[in-house]
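User: We ran a pulldown and think these components assemble together. Before we commit to crystallization trials, I'd like a predicted model of the whole complex to look at. Sequences follow.
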Amino acid sequence: MDVFGGIEAGGTKFVCGVGTGTADLRTTSIPTEQPERTIVKVAEFFRSSAGQDLKAIGIGSFGPIDLDPRSETFGRITATPKQAWRNFDILGQVRQAFNLPVGFDTDVNAAALAEAEWGAARGLKDFIYLTVGTGIGGGACVNGKLIHGLMHPEMGHIRVPHDLAADPFPGSCSYHHDCLEGLASGQALRQRWGIPADQLPADHQAWSLEADYLALAMVNWVCTLSPTRIVVGGGVMQREFLFSMIRRQVTRLLNGYIPRRAVIQEIDSFIVPPELGNRAGVLGAILLAREAYRSGAG
Amino acid sequence: MDVFGGIEAGGTKFVCGVGTGTADLRTTSIPTEQPERTIVKVAEFFRSSAGQDLKAIGIGSFGPIDLDPRSETFGRITATPKQAWRNFDILGQVRQAFNLPVGFDTDVNAAALAEAEWGAARGLKDFIYLTVGTGIGGGACVNGKLIHGLMHPEMGHIRVPHDLAADPFPGSCSYHHDCLEGLASGQALRQRWGIPADQLPADHQAWSLEADYLALAMVNWVCTLSPTRIVVGGGVMQREFLFSMIRRQVTRLLNGYIPRRAVIQEIDSFIVPPELGNRAGVLGAILLAREAYRSGAG
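Assistant: Here's a predicted model for the assembly, 596 residues in total across the polymer chains.
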């Protein structure tokens, strides 16, 4: 039976899957080591678990990555703070390991595709998929198509108001200090409070600040992208009380200026958790593989 | 000869045009008074200048407006601070005055269409059109199509960092105080400094602050929409020195994280003025009319 291979390439682990969708997906997790060594292990997994049935591979990668086929650095990871991976030709290395079509996009774009196919964004043409984990990333569909443009969105790096009197933490982003990721990612939470996000008590002052920053960012995306839903997952969002805090703040910050039921009366179904959990990325990579197979992309 | 009618509906004036494009456009300007009275004058202009040749009308309106045909308030101006116009059924009134197809979108979406057809965004599929005048508004194309989604973008109302120590002005937006429009619109400049933007000296401290806010907003849109160009016009941008100040700040704020020539080496052709000047809105309305005519929209 024809199957596809999906790679969710993350800074901590590579989640690899074989199958065609939610029903038959088999996955494994490979720790992210030196690039070449990691790719060898990925290739071993696909060879042993799919063999000749494998028809195409999809990669949803951490970034920034170069998605422009006309560019000299097409297929590479570019300005990442992870030194060993900077300028690594991930697409080229996977293509070299297999003589198959390979699809390539960001991890969050892949996850957005999967949530649109099987999850919380089923049937939606205009939505945002956001992940708040170690870092913050987002993908978005507009009129049913992923945003790419000049490169791809880097939504975690927008600037939001940062009241230094209330929150003197300078921010954790190595490129921008107090961009959204620098203020509200899991890494920022750990640096600011000295405690990992999953161990901060529910009544810790961290959480109202966290909800404020994420709500400010969501308001900016509502005003810019006019989505019909925001699907937000990732490790930090496992603290479920954040959802109601964020929703309340988004409605308050918009203050009736977007006079639509979705962001006022129906905010509970406007800002929602993903339905595919931590499988969204690898399932999206399967969709990238399927698309590459159909279009015959090298 | 078949011609189209375009209405750029603004808070100060309605610019009406008759023609098919840049070569044959004839325009008039009608001061914005009470809604019904204004529409009567608009109708008189089209009857006297086009008569039976008029095949369709397009409206590019200030907003927010309701663009959802399934909505009860479809075709209306909604949450505007302009009391007399709030909930005014602009589309319905124009349809009633003429038995013709009528196209309807925001003023900035219309202007974006015109710049893509004849101006500074010719041939581009992913770009932003921004106007910084009395208010701040933006339209954007993604994969060659305007963003609509839940409603339409309200890009002027994003939140950006506001250092109250450096700039104690509380902001002029009646909905959000210090959103971008509240900090950097022509109205904000006049309220903060007591002098209209066009009379502020070039060496006034207002301008570095203005460039900072606009650059912060553009960085947010680059990170969210990944445009290949930002076309920015409007009254405030007539102060041409702002362009180089904004470009410098955008490159500095991105700090190499978007490793693309467009936002580093080629920033001068990334952030550019419009080519259609103050005709972009009405020319865009002509395009909305053409589209309504082709699709037979009522």
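Chain B has two domains: 3-110+278-295, 123-274. That may be worth checking against your pulldown data before setting up trials.

User: Thanks, that helps.
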